[in-house]
Design brief:
Chain lengths: ~475, ~350
């Protein structure tokens, strides 16, 4: 135990926590807006399948939201337990931003969620729609504050250092720091894409199981169209974010691109194994001058290499690879969503407007692709910020606590076991819900619904029973 | 004590007091609100399958927002008193981790138990119970640490452990009080029985805590048992005894009344328990002020810069009343006996 580095363990623990956490808000932010969309479509058209879609996805939303809340609580404690130097140095900036997130977003979304989930029959349609809107607004507002803080850590501005502590000189500059608009757009689009692929993947899965009700088709189209719309925007936003990184965090960009030496006419490295000791790429496959073209928009533009940041640049291989995984998933997203839209295009009629089974299977395989891209993207930007915790102000090592190694090792093990179990349970339950056929909104309808169901075998009865959260018997107790 | 208080007319002087108040009230709100749903979680192990669903239905719309009060309380500690946040949570590293694991487990079990495959429902029910129990006990353990000024050694651990057990029973008392209000029939009668046991064990816990206090913190002991404090503070234990007696009497009378369909007084056990929590809070606040860590860190030592506090102050003054308003709205929407949770 003694030869384990407590600093490294603390970093792994924080990374594990925040990786687990980000999966769920990424879904709940955009899924809330999609639910609002379903709800508004239902209110406007009075077509039941929009409400059915709402009721299917709100279950997954509730589950996702709960996982996001509980893993978020863990985060709020970790700052203090593992990184006390962080608040001691930049508390004057991080403090208010975090406080505003709690005050303006957390309570709003948590309270309105109760009404959104459980009170449709108690408050009436309009209030319920407003509650849904406030949940969506709350999740987005929460993302706004936390991304403002993260972006400030990447590209700090609007402050001065007095006696080793950051003091704000201009709050507008702190919040709208140079990388914030790019990071916020990039993350919001990532959230939209994650949800678009979740919805199209799960809907394709149901479609493949011969559940081709209007509800499934409406969800499928919503997901596929949304993905098709967002992916080009995301590629554009990602490109702009990259240019912003080149300007403000050139060391990170050099690591992402695997550029060791400052040069003109830099090639775009497609594949390589970065070798930190030899300061070069092994087995490099690259396209000449392409990186200069997309980074400087001239073929012979100069790009700073890692040689400019000796000892102060991030570890190259993880950043390099995480970036490539993100881009590759993005390309797959472009491919699969555009094929889907081509097949399901509104101008096609009748039997032509169907997915081929392989296309549906591709979408099923892409169900959680958003997670892969989001995590890879965050690893790129967060590992890319190292060795700094706050660029140029505070290194991660200086912020670490003096909690004994054994304690960190113990908690890290517990978190890893718990999180792996929960992640598996989450994915299994999402697919389990997708296999369950009927969703009732009212326990009083239970008998009618149960009779209306076509039971194939006993398993289906069991599943159907489970989907009704609270069977009728209980309704009697409560009158 | 006088020498640690700076000039209160300056921002650096009065703002920490304001935030201590907000943090204290957030923690009190947390302990009462999440207290009843944690209590319901612990009591769930004593209920049958159908009753479990009903019990969950009584807390379903609220638990999420209830837990947010903890984030606010810890958030203020983190953002306004960063030095104390680092010290307290660093010292309480393992109990904090235990509490977090408990909260994670119960938070997700809440959703998983009705969404996962029916075969796994029992497993998630157990996770919900275990998570609630662990989180409650760990919170009591930490409370013990704060009260005793983090006394190391065996007495400290024993003291914290006893406070942990007492908090679990006190949460059960709140939880059963909540169930008496929100449910009917067999479960309601069962809740009355649970409340009796919880009250007995909570009282025993208080006796245990009082007995152990001199062993862990002389300063608190001296503060409480010196003249004239003894007289000034006497109302706290006296009122607690009166409230406990009111709860006990109400629990004896309720079954008869309820069997006649009379709900009069169903609020008494919960309301009086909340009263006891207020008294305990007042006693705790009196014992601690102005220390965040007894004899080590005052609120002024720990406070962040006045400029940062001012920004948070503006936000709090505008937003907190709104939060209270829509929380009240939410409780009004779900007023009365719980109905089955479906969506």
């Amino acid at each position: 135990m003694e030869n384990l580095d407590p600093f490294l363990l603390a970093r792994i623990q924080f990374a594990a926590n925040i990786t687990f956490h980000i999966l769920f808000p990424t879904i709940s932010i955009s899924l809330a807006w999609v639910l609002l969309f379903f709800k508004l479509r239902f209110v406007k058209s009075q077509q039941q399948h929009w409400m059915d879609a709402y009721q299917f996805w709100v279950k997954i939303f509730a589950l996702t939201f709960a996982l996001g809340v509980v893993s978020g609580i863990t985060m709020s404690f970790q700052f203090g337990t593992n990184w006390p130097g962080y608040m001691e140095t930049v508390g004057n900036i991080a403090g208010p931003l975090l406080a505003y997130e709690v005050l303006t977003a957390f309570f709003l979304e948590a309270t309105m969620l109760g009404i959104m989930l459980f009170a449709r029959e108690r408050v009436g349609e309009r209030t319920h729609t407003i509650a849904t809107f406030l949940v969506a607004g709350g999740t987005t507002l929460s993302a706004f504050w936390i991304l403002a803080l993260n972006s400030w850590m990447q590209t700090p501005s609007g402050f001065e250092m007095i006696d080793g502590q950051a003091h704000v000189t201009n709050w507008f500059d702190v919040i709208f720091n140079p990388s914030f608009p790019y990071r916020f757009s990039h993350m919001m689009l990532a959230s939209g894409l994650t949800v678009a692929f979740l919805i199209s993947g799960i809907s394709s899965y149901r479609w493949l199981r011969n559940d081709r009700s209007p509800e499934v088709m409406a969800s499928l189209k919503t997901g596929v169209y949304l993905a098709t719309l967002l992916i080009p925007l995301q590629i554009l936003a990602g490109d702009l974010h990259g240019l912003n990184t080149m300007q403000h965090q050139p060391a990170k960009l050099a690591a992402m691109e695997g550029i060791w030496k400052t040069e003109k006419g830099v090639p775009a490295v497609l594949f390589a194994i970065p070798d930190e000791d030899a300061k070069e790429n092994r087995l490099e496959i690259s396209i000449p001058k392409l990186a200069s073209l997309y980074l400087t928009h001239t073929l012979d533009g100069e790009v700073k290499g890692l040689d400019q940041f000796e000892g102060k640049h991030p570890p190259v291989a993880p950043v390099f690879w995480a970036f490539r995984i993100m881009v590759a998933v993005g390309m797959l997203m472009l491919f699969s969503s555009w094929i889907g839209t081509w097949q399901l295009a509104p101008w096609k009629k009748g039997s032509e407007r169907y997915l081929r089974p392989w296309q549906a299977k591709l979408l099923v395989a892409m169900t959680f692709s958003g997670w892969v891209a989001v995590v890879a993207g965050w690893y790129t930007t967060e590992i890319g910020r190292q060795p700094w915790l706050v660029t140029g102000i505070l290194t991660s090592a200086d912020a670490a606590s003096k909690v004994p190694t054994s304690n960190i090792a113990l908690t890290l093990t517990m978190y890893l076991i718990l999180y792996s179990a929960l992640l598996i349970a989450y994915v299994k339950v999402v697919f389990h819900l997708a296999r369950s056929k009927k969703y009732t909104s009212n326990p009083a309808d239970w008998d009618a619904d149960a009779q209306a169901l076509q039971f194939n075998d006993e398993t289906d009865i069991e599943i159907a029973l489970n989907v009704v959260n609270y069977p009728e018997k209980e309704g009697k107790i409560n009158g | 004590m006088v020498n640690v208080i700076p000039d209160l007319s300056t921002a650096a002087g009065w703002m920490p007091i304001f935030f201590l108040g907000v943090m204290g009230l957030a923690m009190l709100a947390y302990v009462i609100l999440d207290g009843y749903d944690l209590g319901v979680g612990v009591l769930m192990s004593r209920a049958d399958e159908m009753q479990k669903d009903t019990m969950i239905a009584t807390i379903g719309p609220f638990w999420d927002a209830n837990e947010t009060w903890l984030v606010l309380g810890v958030g203020i500690l983190l953002t306004v008193f960063p030095v104390a946040h680092g010290f307290i949570l660093g010292t309480l590293y393992l109990p904090v981790a235990a509490m977090l694991l408990g909260l994670v487990l119960r938070g997700v079990a809440f959703d998983f138990r009705v969404k996962a495959h029916a075969d796994h429902k029992g497993l998630w029910n157990r996770a919900f119970f275990l998570g609630s129990l662990t989180a409650s006990w760990a919170q009591g353990y930490m409370l013990g640490g704060v009260v005793s000024g983090f006394t190391p050694g065996g007495w400290g651990v024993a003291f914290n452990g006893v406070v942990g057990c007492t908090l679990v029973t006190a949460y059960c008392l709140l939880g059963s009080g909540w169930l008496i209000i929100k449910t009917e029939g067999t479960l309601q009668l069962k809740a009355i029985q649970w409340a009796r046991y919880s009250l007995i064990f909570t009282s025993l816990g208080f006796v245990g805590i009082t007995t152990l206090t001199p062993f862990v913190s002389n300063s608190i002991f001296a503060k409480w048992f010196s003249f004239p404090n003894l007289v000034l503070l006497m109302p706290i234990p006296a009122a607690t005894i009166v409230l406990s007696w009111i709860i006990w009497r109400s629990l004896a009378r309720l079954p008869v009344r309820l069997s006649n369909g009379n709900e009069y007084g169903a609020w008494v056990p919960f309301g009086s328990t909340v009263g006891i929590f207020f008294l305990a809070f007042y006693g705790l606040a009196y014992s601690l002020f102005p220390w965040l860590v007894i004899e080590k860190i005052t609120i002024w030592d720990a406070a962040t810069s006045p400029a940062a506090m001012e920004v948070i102050l503006v936000g709090s003054v505008i937003v907190l009343p709104l939060i209270v308003c829509y929380t009240v709205f939410s409780y009004r929407v779900f007023w009365g006996k719980s109905t089955a949770l479906t969506y």
